[in-house]
C-alpha cells in the first residue's frame, strides 16, 4: 500500500471540513480498529511492531529530510533551542526509536494477564484481568518520537490512537504516520489503529478534548501551557504528564566525585527534557559543593544562585541572584538555580513548595538520610545516588514510554504497556443466583 493510499483517510475529502464531525468519525473508526486489535495474538502484534521498526529504519533518510523541513521552519519562526532539540530526528535518535519498538516486541503482553483471582466460598470463580483502554488520544508538540513511542505501546497493549502532533512537527509526523499505516496494512492489521488529526490543527485538538464517550483517555505531552490547557478544558479523562521542575539535593555526606558526576549528568546530559535537573540544593556542610559548581560552570551551565551559593562560586565567575521565579522555573535549557540549605528537612520543605512531583534526587553517603528523603518527598520518581535522567521508560526496562505521569491515579511515573490497560472482572459460575 502506498503512503498516499495508507494516509487517504486523514484528508478533508474523507471526513469533511468540520473538526468535531471529523474527529468523531475518526474516533469511530479507531474504535472498530481497537476491537479488532484486542483479539489479535501476541505473535501478530509483535510481528507488526518488528515490521514497523524495519520500515522506519529502511526509510530513515526520508524521515530525516521531512524533519529537516520542520527544523528549518522552526528556526525561521524563532522556535526555542529547547524545542528544536526535542524536534530533531537524526540517525541516532531514529535508531533509538527502532530499538524501542524491538524491545517492546520482546516484552510480555499485558493483555489477558491476571491481576488477581480466587474461588469464593460459594463456588464462584472470579478473576481480574488486564484489557486495553480502547481509543487513546495524544496531544503533543515538537516531539515526533512520541508518534512512534505511543504507537508501539498502543499496538502492543491492544489500543488504537488518535494523534495531534502539532504544527512544529507536521512534516515529520506525516512521514512517520504514513510509514506506520503502510506497515500495519502489510501485516493485515487495521490501519486505523493509528490516525493523525493534524490536518484539523488546533480546532482538531479542541474537538479531541471534547470527544467524551468516543475517546477513552487523553494524554498531553508538552510544556506547562499545553498540559494545563488540556487538563482544564478536556471533558475526556486525562492522564496529566510531564512538567518537570526537578531537584537534586547534595547531602553533607555526599562523596565529591559522585556528587559532581550525578549533578552534571542530571543537568547537562540533555537539558531540554522533563527529567533534567532544574534546581540544585546544597547542604551547607557539603564539602562537594564548590567542586559541583565549578564542574557545572565548566560545562557551560548558567547558574542562578542564592547568597550562600554565590560564595562557593569559582573565582571570577559571576551569576545572577536566584529569585522565586527561578525556583519555580522549568528551564529546559542550560540554566540551573542553586540554593544552600541548613538541613535535609529544609531541602525537603523547599522541594515540597516548588516541586511538580516528577523526579527528585538525593546524593548522600548516609543511609538514614536516603531513607528519610525517600519517605518525605512526594514525587513520581525518587533517585538515590543516581541521575534524574533515569526517569525514562526505556531506561527503566519498559521498552518505551508514552510520558511521565505526575498524577496519582492508576498511572504514575513512566507510562509503559500496563499503564495503557485497564481491568475487567470475570466471574464464572454454574448457574449461581444471589440469595
Q: Which terms summarize this structure?
A:
6-stranded parallel beta sheet, 43% helix, alpha/beta, 15 strands
Radius of gyration: 24 Å
Which class do the helix and strand fractions yield?
alpha/beta
Q: What is the helical fraction, as a range of percent?
A: 40-55%
Order of the strands making up the biggest sheet? 9-10-8-7-11-12
Low-confidence residue ranges: 1-9
State the major sheet. 6 strands, parallel
Beginning-to-end CA distance, first to last residue: 58 Å
Shape: globular
Strand content: 15-25%
Number of strands: 15
User: Number of helix segments?
Assistant: 17
Task: Give a structural overview.
Helix 7 runs parallel beside helix 8 and helix 12 (about 255-270) runs parallel beside helix 13 (about 290-300). The strands form four sheets. The chain has a six-stranded parallel β-sheet with strand order 9-10-8-7-11-12, with helices on both faces. The chain has a four-stranded parallel β-sheet with strand order 5-4-3-6, with helices on both faces. It has a three-stranded antiparallel β-sheet with strand order 1-2-15, with no helix packed on it. It is globular. Residues about 1-10 have low confidence and may be disordered. Helix content is about 45%, strand content about 20%. The chain is built from 17 helices and 15 strands. By secondary structure, the chain is of the alpha/beta class. The protein has helices at about 5, 10-15, 20-40, 40-60, 60-75, 80-85, 90-105, 145-155, 170-185, 200-210, 225-235, 255-270, 290-300, 305-310, 325, 345-355, 365-375, and strands at about 115-120, 125-130, 135-140, 160-165, 195, 215-220, 245-250, 275-285, 300-305, 335-340, 360-365, 380-385, 405, 415, 420-430.
Amino acid at each position: 500500500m502506498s503512503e498516499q493510499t495508507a494516509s487517504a483517510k486523514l484528508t478533508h475529502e474523507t471526513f469533511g471540513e468540520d473538526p468535531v464531525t471529523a474527529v468523531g468519525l475518526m474516533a469511530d473508526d479507531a474504535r472498530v480498529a481497537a476491537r479488532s486489535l484486542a483479539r489479535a495474538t501476541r505473535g501478530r502484534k509483535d510481528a507488526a511492531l518488528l515490521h514497523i521498526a524495519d520500515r522506519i529504519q529502511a526509510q530513515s533518510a526520508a524521515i530525516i529530510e521531512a524533519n529537516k523541513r520542520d527544523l528549518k521552519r522552526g528556526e525561521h519562526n524563532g522556535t526555542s533551542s529547547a524545542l528544536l532539540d526535542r524536534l530533531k530526528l537524526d540517525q541516532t535518535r531514529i535508531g533509538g526509536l527502532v530499538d524501542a519498538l524491538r524491545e517492546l516486541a520482546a516484552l510480555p503482553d499485558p493483555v489477558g494477564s491476571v491481576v488477581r483471582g480466587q474461588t469464593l466460598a460459594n463456588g464462584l470463580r472470579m478473576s481480574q484481568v488486564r484489557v486495553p483502554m480502547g481509543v487513546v488520544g495524544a496531544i503533543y508538540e515538537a516531539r515526533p518520537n512520541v508518534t512512534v513511542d505511543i504507537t508501539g505501546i498502543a499496538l502492543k497493549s491492544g489500543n488504537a490512537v488518535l494523534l495531534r502532533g502539532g504544527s512544529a512537527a507536521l512534516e515529520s509526523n506525516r512521514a512517520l504516520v504514513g510509514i506506520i499505516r503502510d506497515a500495519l496494512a502489510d501485516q493485515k492489521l487495521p490501519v486505523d489503529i493509528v490516525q493523525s488529526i493534524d490536518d484539523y490543527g488546533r480546532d482538531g485538538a479542541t474537538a479531541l478534548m471534547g470527544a467524551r464517550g468516543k475517546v477513552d483517555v487523553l494524554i498531553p505531552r508538552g510544556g506547562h501551557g499545553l498540559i494545563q490547557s488540556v487538563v482544564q478544558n478536556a471533558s475526556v479523562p486525562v492522564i496529566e504528564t510531564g512538567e518537570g521542575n526537578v531537584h537534586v539535593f547534595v547531602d553533607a555526606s555526599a562523596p565529591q566525585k559522585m556528587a559532581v558526576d550525578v549533578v552534571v549528568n542530571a543537568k547537562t546530559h540533555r537539558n531540554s527534557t522533563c527529567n533534567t535537573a532544574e534546581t540544585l540544593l546544597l547542604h551547607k556542610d557539603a564539602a562537594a559543593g564548590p567542586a559541583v559548581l565549578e564542574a557545572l560552570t565548566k560545562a557551560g551551565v548558567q547558574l542562578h544562585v542564592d547568597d550562600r551559593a554565590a560564595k562557593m562560586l569559582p573565582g571570577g565567575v559571576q551569576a545572577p541572584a536566584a529569585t522565586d521565579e527561578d525556583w519555580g522555573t522549568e528551564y529546559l535549557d542550560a540554566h540551573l538555580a542553586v540554593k544552600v540549605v541548613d538541613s535535609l528537612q529544609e531541602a525537603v520543605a523547599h522541594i515540597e513548595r516548588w516541586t511538580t512531583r516528577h523526579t527528585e534526587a538525593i546524593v548522600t553517603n548516609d543511609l538514614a538520610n536516603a531513607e528519610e528523603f525517600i519517605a518525605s518527598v512526594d514525587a513520581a520518581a525518587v533517585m538515590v545516588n543516581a541521575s534524574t535522567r533515569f526517569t525514562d521508560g526505556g531506561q527503566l526496562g519498559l521498552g518505551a514510554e508514552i510520558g511521565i505521569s505526575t498524577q496519582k491515579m492508576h498511572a504514575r511515573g513512566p507510562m509503559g504497556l500496563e499503564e495503557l490497560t485497564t481491568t475487567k472482572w470475570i466471574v464464572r459460575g454454574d448457574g449461581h443466583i444471589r440469595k
